[in-house]
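Subject: sequence -> structure tokens, single chain

Hey, anyone have a minute? Need the predicted structure for the following. Not urgent.
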Amino acid sequence: MCDRGASALSVPDDWPAHPDPFLALNRMGTFDWDLDTGLYHMDAQAHEVYDLLPDEFDGRLESLGVRVPQPEASRIDAVISRAIKDGSENYGAYFRIRRRDGGYRWAHTQGYIRRDETGRPRRVIGIVRDATQELADSEGRSLRAAQDAAFRRQSNVVQVITAALSHARSVQDVIDVLKDTDGVRHLGAASLVMGLVEAGRIRLVAEGPEGSFVPGTRVTGIDEPYPMSEVVRILSPRFIESPEEFAEGYPILWPHITDLDITSAAYLPLIAQARPIGAMGLLYNDRRGFSAEERAVLVALGSSIAQSLQRAMLYEQERDLAQGLQQAMLPRTIPSVRGADVAVRYRAGSAAGSLSRDIGGDWYDLIPLPGGRVGAVIGDVQGHDTHAAAVMGQLRIVLRAYAAEGHTPATVMARASVFLHELDTARFATCLYAEADLVTGVVQVVRAGHIDPLIRHTDGSCRRVPVEGGLPLGLSAEFGRLEYPVTTLELDPGQTLLLCTDGLVEQPGTDLDDGVRTLTELIGAGPEDVRDLADRLIDVAEERGGDDDVALLLLRRRGADTAQGGRLQQQVAPGDPEALALARHMIRAAVRAWGAGDRADEIELAADELITNALLHTEGSAIVTLRVLGGSARTLRVEVEDSSSALPRRRDAGESGVSGRGLLLVDRLADVWGVEARGGGKCVWCEFGTAERG
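Reply:
Had a minute. Here:
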């Protein structure tokens, strides 16, 4: 090794006859090399450096070969030759000396080249000294500097890994962080294994690289002779510093990993809250042993990984519980509906942050109703937590119960609002309830603070349907505003009604109207089949992400089936003009749908008279039923039931009377009519032939 920068020696011509006392005090030997004769003179201190006795050296440079190995001598000769050729005044070099006992020491030589008037080199004078301790100190400093740099680098890696692990929300997230390019490979590890403690066993959850899996170790017992099992048992890390130590300590495992060229390994127990939750192993193929600093770094890394794993496992448990609760609150199955194709979808929010962000209060429901009708519900309870899901489940049940009892859509919504208010929860809910008559296509819609429905037409175009609405459920009862206006729509055969929560429409930084326009364009360009369309919409929501849940319900009315008979039913309560108007609307739409439009006015007028008679002359509600009787000559039958057993009487009303004309009118309009006893009440009916009359 060349000197780091020797300076020229200022010596007299007769040196070393009068050596500098400073050299002797510092145990530096001197030499004088006559280049013309080749004689090499050394003082006593130089003899000690070379470990030679005075009578063992004859003054010839070649004789130093017994102490200077040939490769070292050749290297020094090259240094001197280059200095002479370059015209340098001095040179310096480190070299090894073989001691008398066979060991080696490092020496350093520094020479000054004396030249004559022509520049020809004539003499080299200089010093030689023992440099073993100097180099040991230098190498120690370099080693310590390298270790400090490695420690800082490893500490930085631990900080990077810890920062990345703070975002891990699942066990797989933790594994992905560790396998990432910024992960443990920056610590120099060639391979990684990780296992989790489950029911007294260790289940392997990660191993790498590919092809390094050891058969039979996917699940191992804690008491088995494997390193991960051992660190879990003793709750302390295990540092394996050589292949021999690995083979001796784990003879069952070692033969299976010899192809990985493992030279050392570090196995760390993953401990959280004073109990082992798993173990991790880092295997190396380019090192032996671990310094105290490296062991401390790895132990700190294991602690950080254990904490992240515990958070991830708790989150997964919370998420599974929340998703289970969510699924339990949503309908298990959607009933098949005659006359319609239905598709429902749900997507949980996926934003990072709170552990409860994967569950919310969005829901859908489909409620079969008497008379060929169906109720479609979409709603969203405020909040994203298990409480929101619990409130949602209760609200869904009461809505279904109120609808099944036969209440009008407005009453269903009002009662649900009162229920939510009396539930003594701080939550409110938005909701949209649509009651559809699939035979006539009449849809009655009520809205409680929810977004409007959309209708897709048979030509693929889509539009938003404005629906007059009321306050969200819970708030309407609190402020004493329980009015929910009913909007009546007509859904033609082939048209699709879409109900959704705002998670499908709203996007951060965009206006709600813009979101609705984007949705209508997406629906218009989507597939015709409702199930495929629902999949497409939920896929778009998944791609877009977001922290809000998405629930949607699609209901497509099929074409009218004229070969089959139909049946509709509507309850009309006393003093409820809205129910009477809805019954008339139902009859009118049904008559058109069943191909009896030429007698629509007659049928509607006769039915109106029967309903009015029941409400005026009896107590309680009237139940109106409209049905088609089969046969080649199709007949439409109107039935009005009430709770009175008193039979109606047909009588003349007189010139100035206004009562008594109803049955006379029915008798004139209908082909046939009659009265039937029905338990505690009666049914007045009339029939109309729908075939063309000659």
